[in-house]
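Kindly inspect this chain:
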Amino acid sequence: MIGSDRTTSRPTTGGQTVGETQAPGDGRRPVFAAERRQRIIELLRVNGAVSLRELAQAVRSSEVTVRRDLRALEAEGLINRHHGGATLPGELSREPTYAQKAQVAAGEKAAIADLAASLVEDGDAIVVGPGTTTQEFARRLTRHTELAVVTNSLLVAQALSGSPRIEVVLTGGTLRGSIHALVGSAAEHSLAGLRVRRAFVSGNGLTAERGLSTPNMQVAGVDRALAGAAEEVVVLADHTKIGVDTMVQTIAVEQFDHLVTDDGAPRDVLDELSGRGVRLHVAHA
């Protein structure tokens, strides 16, 4: 439950009053609105898309206050608001670095990976896409036996390389260094005609309207090929990606069967996805 803000005013050296906002029960110093909004913009520059909850934690204010800040910043044309978060203008085509993505919601990604691994059974044949969450997921597959894993991610393959009970097949393709993955027509062709039980994929954004999306067209093409190779598609997405839209649609909502996310995901988006037939698996971070 989100409490109401506690707001005070005090004169500045110029005699003007400036509002200060502090999350209820928070003993830390109040943060000026201008300072708080500048910090929000800095966070968006570093991370691309940030959830409302994470912004509130980072600027030490309530979600009610940050939501008001986002409205004000959007009115000035400085940000774009989305379900449960925000991006900077032009962020639909921006791809954060892998290192940046790895730092976001690390605990939630670990919990999602644990839950997603429970959807894998010994003897399964699966395909796994690239991403920080799918990399965590791959690390948990080593407990299984007689798995066949096809992937275009070098980091997924590396995570499984020490397990003699798992057969790992890398697609061909052109290396996209920013995500340590193979993309392009060769990667797509190597997946053609393949049929496995489940595909485990991630992305940069997920909405109930457009499904999964990414800023890059080559990445999107391989993600579609991964999904097309599977009887069921499992999307792994932490709360910072839910309600966020990026430039290229990869997998429409009608094409995936499961969503594994965390309990910080916006409830309204999850309800929409559930109403469209997606089975929800919510991890508690």
Summary: The first helix runs from residue 33 to 47. The chain has two domains: 6-89, 98-283.
